[in-house]
Amino acid sequence: MNSVDTLKYLSSQMDFEADGEPRLDSPAPVCFTPKEDAHTLTHRAQLPNGKSILLLKTLLSSACERDCFYCPFRAGRDFRRATFKPDEFAGLFSKMHQSGIAEGVFLSSGIAGGGIRTQDKLLDTADILRKKYQYRGYLHLKIMPGAEKDQVYRAMQLADRVSVNLEAPNTERLARLAPHKIFIEELLRPLKWVEEIRRSEPSYKFWNGRYPSTVTQFVAGGSDESDLELLTITNWLNKNVRLKRAYFSAFHPVRNTPLENKPAVDPMREHRLYQASFLLRDYGFDLEDLPFTNESNLPLYTDPKQAWAQINLVEKPIEINKAEKRDLIKIPGIGLKGADAILNARRMNKLRDLSSLKKLGVVAERAAPYLLMDGRKMAAQLSLF
Q1: Which of 3, 98, 275, 316 is the most buried (most CB within 10 A)?
Q2: Which CATH architecture has domain 3-287?
């Protein structure tokens, strides 16, 4: 294969890796698909700052010595492998960037020769991009299992975002997915290192004078874990290592892997996990607030914010003209920006009807059952679906 064909092949294998900003209020499951058609190498991704870019997601190599039960790259699986040399990939991506085909890159790899050696190749590629080709755009680097702390530090100096895929919420569950990965030493420890480095080193030492953001990803349903397990570790990561985002990839079976006969997970579960994780991170919710079922899972039929409101706000609606932001954002249909707009608007006049809320970007029909406007409850029909 020539370089372009190698890139097409490797990037086509990245549908399991997420990078972008899933929305809390999206009415349908979040899907991260790498390409719109067979000829497209990049996809549109929204960055944390709200900017939308054409992002190339690819592997440096699909050769892998690990035997994770769910993974298409697992050792021993019969499929074609491909590999880039660091300078070869850097040169190709630089041409794509200069021609406007790609504005950012997310670079991962299968593990060959150990995590340390593979991490060195990723770092070499990033270093060539930044120094030789003067690339200053968005770069997301994967941290390999087994990488050393100095390698994590160097990745933070080169990348806008670094990530370590935990894949499962704890040691016991990981053993069902990836029996030769070590949850604490190989996966959780690098995330802790990132935070230790942030706390010990000034930001000017890192790319563009800023600390890189940190994300992780879980294979939702792959190890028969509960939503409570996934959200418990996510909540811990938010508080202890300043995780920017947890991604959830609904399990789907891959042919010729040990889990090929395991049923696929409903994509709506992935969507509910995103919604709940945002409530924990941005909306002041605690784990105890979330409406888990007896099986410790989130209900699929309604979003967790609305389920909480049904229990807590129907009989005790919130007065829209007096509530503080922390209470406003717990009302369905009111997001962070909507709450700020309400606070600004009521400095001028009281809000008296749903139409005034609609003008502020609030989904008024969803919010109506849970609020008062100047002491009056608004009439609106509630839909749970």
Answers
A1: 275
A2: Alpha-Beta Barrel (3.20)
